[in-house]
Amino acid sequence: MTDPTLSSSGPTRAASQWLADFAAALAQGDIDTAVALFEPDSFWRDLVAFTWNIRTQEGPAAIRAMLQARLADTQPTAFALEGEATEADGVVDAWFTFETRVARGRGHLRLRNGKAWTLLTTMTELKGFEEKTGDNRVKGAEHGVHKGRKNWLEKRRDEEAALGYTEQPEVVIIGGGQGGIALGARLRRLGVPTIIVERNAKAGDSWRKRYKSLCLHDPVWYDHLPYMPFPDDWPVFAPKDKIGDWLEMYTKIMELNYWSSTTAKKARYDEATQRWEVTVEREGKPVVLRPKQLVFALGVSGYPNVPKVAGAENFKGDQHHSSQHPGPEAYAGKKCVVLGSNNSAHDICAALWEHGADVTMIQRSSTHIAPSQSLMELALGGLYSEQAVKNGIDHHKGDLIFASVPYRIMHTFHIPVYEEMKKRDAGLYARLEKAGFLLDFGVDGSGLFMKYLRRGSGYYIDVGASELVANGSIHLKSGVNIERVNEHSVTLTDGTELPADLLVYATGYGSMNGWLADLISPEIADKVGKCWGLGSDTPKDPGPWEGELRNMWKPTQVDNLWFHGGNLHQSRHYSQFLALQLKARMEGIDTPVYERAPSYHTR
Q1: Is residue 6 over pLDDT 80?
Q2: Reading across the β-sheet that carries 262-270, which strands appear in turn?
Q3: How far does the chain reach from its first CA to its final CA, in angstroms?
Q4: 96, 233, 323, 436: which has the fewest C-beta neighbours closer than 10 Å?
Q5: pLDDT reported for residue 302
Q6: Per-residue model confidence (pLDDT) at position 300
Q7: Beta bridge partners of 482
Q8: Dihedrals phi, psi of 501, to nearest 5 degrees
């Protein structure tokens, strides 16, 4: 029998040797030797630690250029292997920690034949500005006798009364959904004065106000908020109102300065004061906030896309975008038409059918269908599941493993997953196609998550509605669009006329920078450029290749203007790196941004 310590020492020894050689080369400023440690088809993804950016260097030439620009200033030291390395299919996986002149970090390494294939470096904390946790936590109690002392509640009320009025915040976050809340919690822990502006009356209302049947399609292990994971009996798929209540409680417990019932009206950057001037209306009264940094945290999307259809103004029934859909109760026995075939369209169609409505889905173009159970087991289970936790992969480690795969090659990791899904769920796919449903798995077969990253649309995580489409319970008209809306019906592009009492536009959203055009100016919106997408030159994600998500969590073409968003997993993970960038600027740490991404597209 092989001695397990010997069998495990091979990968650990290989990783230790590579890390020692890399550290020595960097310490000596020997960039040639450092670059020679990477294979020709290699990637170095950096989350703030070296580049003050979120950026992937693709290939030795790009790695060399980055080190030539940033090595002397970064001064990386103290590389140390973390735990034992592992090996599978000829690839060695290893974790390590390191330091820079101003920060501490954590990284991940993949070796092939002794050379680096992928390298991930991430900033975890700024030296001298660590979060007050563990041994560094504040006492809370003020022992002794002090005249005129204020207790916690009085101090908290003083802070709430002053911030935004007699004292200005460092950061204003526009948008108090999951993204703004997660980032606000990170900034609070770092001592960055922040106000979150939210138009709804309560935190969590952006969830509560959605259609009745909405539940998270992602599993609980994927969805924890920073610092405070869900309880271990939390449902795998949380209902919308439960999430709403959690977000409301979280804002209170994390002591966030959360301005609900507040609408951002206008923003401009004052060059003289080097601050933003953000005019908001708070509970009916105008307030001008003057932060140094302005963050838009309005989800993954901009304004709802509502198509302009001839005759819509004459429709006698109800019509609205899916974001405004109240639920199915009022439509029992009614004729309902839903334009769209992604997540919201399927959810709304299924709920209407459950309440006795006659529902037709209009599918304009092909859609990727990923059955929930298969998605959990094949795509997410290795990193985000109860079994993953038992295997030592909590959501923190899962996030870093996920982040360690460069976007350039990520699709190659996903294609086998969806090939297996095609086999596992072949019966469902065959029934859907027989019903006329137009299916796809992405242009390269890489499935759901690459579609999400590239375009943020084009898929449905099947939690039951697909069977209703397959068996005809939800009527389907595919490969067509609505040509004209009549008083009591819609006419499709193939000439079919469908009677309609309700028309729902489940037609998605525009780019996030659309908000800027109204709040700041169209010129600023276009200077920032399109948000989201990788430049993959696939449908709805025009090239050129950018290698990271456009404008997300990193410096944009407009100084002191940031975007934060994504699903719960991304909001949790990337809020760490955006918060560190904002904290560094507040403390006057030099933050030279390496290769700020250009804008290729407007909106």
Answers
A1: no
A2: 262-270, 275-282, 285-289
A3: 62
A4: 233
A5: 66
A6: 63
A7: 492
A8: -100, -25
- Count the neighbouring beta carbons within 10 Å of the beta carbon of residue 525: 24
- Indicate whether 237 pLDDT > 50: yes
pLDDT for 587 equals 98
Can you give the length of the chain in residues?
Answer: 603
- With beta carbons less than 8 A apart as the criterion, state whether 386 and 437 touch: no
Instruction: Tell the burial category of 48 from Cβ atoms under 10 Å away from its Cβ (0-12, 13-18, 19+).
Output: buried
Q: Cα separation of 176 and 109, whole Å?
A: 36
Q: Render 69-111 in DSSP notation, one character per residue.
A: HHHHHH--EEEEEEEEEEEETTEEEEEEEEE-SSEEEEEEEEE
- pLDDT for 301 equals 61
Would you call the peptide bond into 544 cis, given omega within 30 degrees of 0 as the criterion? Answer: yes
Structure tokens of 183? 């980032």
Question: Cβ distance 175 to 300 under 8 Å?
Answer: no
CA–CA distance, 199 with 519 (Å, rounded to integer): 14
pLDDT average, residue stretch 580-589: 98
Other C-beta atoms closer than 10 Å to the C-beta of 175 total 25
**Helix boundaries (H) for 230-362:** 240-253, 343-354
Could you tell me the CA-to-CA distances from 479 to 339, 364, 366, 467, 496 in Å, in that order?
12, 5, 8, 19, 12
CA distances from 467 to 244, 390, 462 (A): 29, 33, 9
Q: How far apart are CA 51 and CA 69, in angstroms?
A: 9
Integer Cα distance of 203 and 297 in angstroms: 14
Give whole-number Cα distances, 204 to 72, 198, 536, in Å. 46, 10, 34
Separation of alpha carbons 33 and 25, rounded Å: 6
Cα 417–chain centre separation:
22
Q: Considering Cα of 116, then 122, then 127, then 133, what sign does the dihedral take? A: negative
The secondary element (H helix, E strand) that includes residue 374 is helix 372-374
Can you tell me which residue has the tokens 């209703």? Answer: 468
Residue 377 token pair: 């087991």
At residue 334, the 3 state secondary structure works out as: coil
* Surface-to-core class of residue 469, CB atoms within 10 Å of its CB (0-12 exposed, 13-18 middle, 19+ buried): buried
How far is the C-alpha of 152 from the C-alpha of 168, rounded, in Å?
Answer: 21
Give which of 512, 548, 539 is closest to 528, Cα–Cα: 512
Task: Please write the tens of the pLDDT for every residue from 424-443.
Answer: 999 999 999 999 999 999 99
Tokens representing 82 are 């973390």
Distances 487 to 218, 360, 362 between C-alpha atoms, Å: 39, 17, 18
**Crossing angle for the helix pair 395-403 and 568-586, to the nearest 10 degrees:** 80
- Among 164, 502, 525, CA closest to 355: 502
pLDDT of residue 2: 37
290 close to 268: Cβ distance less than 8 angstroms: no
Q: Enter the tokens of residue 264.
A: 């951002």
pLDDT at 387: 95
Rounded to whole angstroms, the Cα distance separating 435 from 452 reads: 26
**Token code pair at residue 99:** 């330091």
- Specify which residues 262 forms β-bridges with: 282
Instruction: Read off the pLDDT of each residue in 517-535 and give the average, rounded to a whole number.
Output: 95
One-letter amino acid for residue 489 of the chain: S
Number of H helices, E strands in the chain: 18, 24
Q: How far apart are CA 44 and CA 99, in angstroms?
A: 17
Q: Using 50, 70 and 90 to split pLDDT, how confident is the model at 211? A: confident
